[in-house]
Amino acid sequence: MGSLFARLFDTPLSLVAFDAVITPLALLVRLILPLGAAFLLYRLLLTLLRRKIGRLRAQFDTAQRLYRYVRTILRFVLVSLAVLLVYGLFGSDASRGAVVLWNILSTPIIETAGSSISLVTVIFAIPIGYVAVWTARTGSGFLKTRALSRLPLTDATRFSIGGITHYLILSVTLVIGLSFLGVNLSTFSVLIGTLGIGIGFGLQNVVASFVSGLVIIFERPIKEGDRVVVEGTEGDVAHIRLRSTIITTLTDETIIVPNHQLIGNKIYNNSHEVRRITVINQVSVAYGTDLDYAAEVLKGVALASPYARASAEPDVRVREFGDSGILMELWTGIEDAGTKWPAHSWANFEIARAFRRAAITIPFPQRDLHVKELPAGAAGVDLKPVPAASE
Predict the structure, then answer these.
(1) Which residues of 252-284 are buried (b: 16+ CB within 10 A; e: fewer)?
(2) What's the start-to-end Cα distance of the chain, in Å?
């Protein structure tokens, strides 16, 4: 039994690509055990580093970044040690195996006009992509935190410029890196053109909103702080951006309106030139009411309003003679469009109180039915009295 195990560990191995004079015992001692010890040391160092970083008073992002850098270095050292051990184990036969492996990896998988893509291209494209992402993130972060922070720009503008810079740096770095690998990007021109057409159709509203944002900035049809009515929703303009406008409604809700809707649709701006507007309160009086006396009562309400503009004389108008009463309107000028609805509500309350004191009746809708004669053939019909509906 002992001689069997001795032959098992001492018999040279025969590999497919080349013959190597190596025994399983040498493989265990010179490769597996050193690699196992190196891997255990790698895990131990990472554990100690994680505990040490946890004790430092550093920010979470900084600690995680330091841990990733050290882990990358240790992994590189571990892989390099494995390569050296393999090369020392096989000697010159390892060089022959490396040549065979390189020929396999460099065999073109896809060949197009002017470029060929192999496994080597894919392998080297991974670090190029990593470098491109890191360069784009670092460059845009430096631009937002250092350069743009010194300029009088809003956070939204800094975010937009930083995002555009990020994708621009990423694209340029990828193009340069793939060009060094021998990839001819002109072969993808048809695909890029097709994607460009699709993106153009998808972004037409975005482009229209950007152009409309420039129109709003230069023409100033609306400005921040204006009281506007957009598609039946009233609110104050909070922020105007290149792509959209943020409006705070009367119920403290926020709506984001694309700028092309503000330019292409009808918008009510209650404070375009000045914030002074006129509030109209409607009220009906019963037929037979002294309209001059009712007008004096309504003017008294307007003059007592705390929202009224001192320089504006209130006006009372008879709107129409309705079925149930005479519709009158009280026109009151106020200073600020933002107090439109409080002023309107206050006037309604005071009109009701003033009419009650002045014994002026506000009629409710009613109808009178007059029957002149019964229709022909209805003389023999037994008509039963219908109880009157109670008001």
Answers:
(1) eeeeebbbbbbbeeebebbbbeebebebebebb
(2) 116
Burial of residue 121 (CB within 10 Å: 0-12, 13-18, 19+) is: buried
Strands of the sheet with 268-269, listed across from one edge: 254-258, 244-249, 233-240, 227-230, 268-269
Residue 292: band (very low, low, confident or very high) from pLDDT cuts 50, 70, 90: very high
Task: Check residue 339 and report its DSSP letter.
Answer: G
Which residues does 130 contact at the CB level (< 8 Å), separation at least 6?
none
**pLDDT digits 0-9 by tens, 125-148:** 777 888 888 888 888 877 777 777
Query: Can you tell me the distance from the alpha carbon of 366 to that of 368, in angstroms, rounded to the nearest whole number?
Result: 7
DSSP structural state of residue 93: H
C-alpha to C-alpha distance for 391 and 385, rounded to whole angstroms: 18
- Assess contact for 39 and 75: CB atoms under 8 A: no
Give the separation between CA 299 and CA 322, rounded to whole angstroms.
22
**pLDDT digit string, tens, across residues 192-216:** 666 667 666 666 777 788 788 888 8
